[in-house]
Amino acid sequence: MKNILMTTATLGFCLILSFFAPTTASATWGFSMGENGDYPIGSQHANFSKIEFFIPDVPQNAGITWSGSGVSNFSNILWSSDKINPTYVLAAGPAITGNLFWDFLFTGTAPKKDFRLDYLVYTNNNSPAFGISMSIDKGVPKFNPSGWTSLNLNNLPNYNRSPVAAPVPPSVFLLGAGLIGVVVLRKRVRG
Q: Is 159 contained in some domain?
């Protein structure tokens, strides 16, 4: 009976500790933007249903990564995004005719320097319709012509689209340590 009580108490203590495990919180910053979805494809205009957002691997982007889902608060509530890795976010939803607005969210604080952000807009048939590289000046996008560069859709940079496994939460380590403790206690009591 004493062993059962000791084991139960140890497990309970470990579970309680796991709920109070410290989590790493970081500051975030961001800005709002939008897209109008009116791209000339031949003699027609195409709607869009997918956007890829990239923080390219260039020197001025060192240390800049997406926070949370990276892109959120879409003006069309049927749109959503997934952070695939720290530098790549994929957003999709029903075809848009007209404007779509969203918020960008990055980790840390707004950089004191310019950095680059690229995005590709895809039509309903999953063809890239438009790509842009934009300059962000101390956390604020440059909307004048010098801040935008159209991407050549036939010669795009080699973006990192590889998914990254989610990190193991600290509570799992605490629970594991508690279980090891239970095993050690049981061996001592029996020995």
A: no
pTM score over 0.90 = no
- Report pLDDT digits (tens) over 72-127: 999 999 999 999 999 999 999 998 877 899 999 999 888 888 889 999 999 877 88
Same domain, yes or no: 122 and 38: yes
The residue among 43 and 133 whose pLDDT is bigger is 133
Q: Which residues contact 120 (CB under 8 A, 6 or more apart)?
A: 51, 52, 54, 128, 130, 131, 151, 153, 156
| Residue 16: inside a domain | yes
Note whether 8 and 43 are same-domain residues: no
Task: Identify whether the C-beta of residue 119 lies closer than 8 Å to the C-beta of residue 38.
Answer: no
| 173 and 90 assigned to the same domain | no
Owning domain of residue 15: 2-21+169-190
147: which DSSP letter? G
On whether residue 86 sits in a domain, the answer given is yes
Which three-class secondary structure state does DSSP give residue 121?
Answer: strand
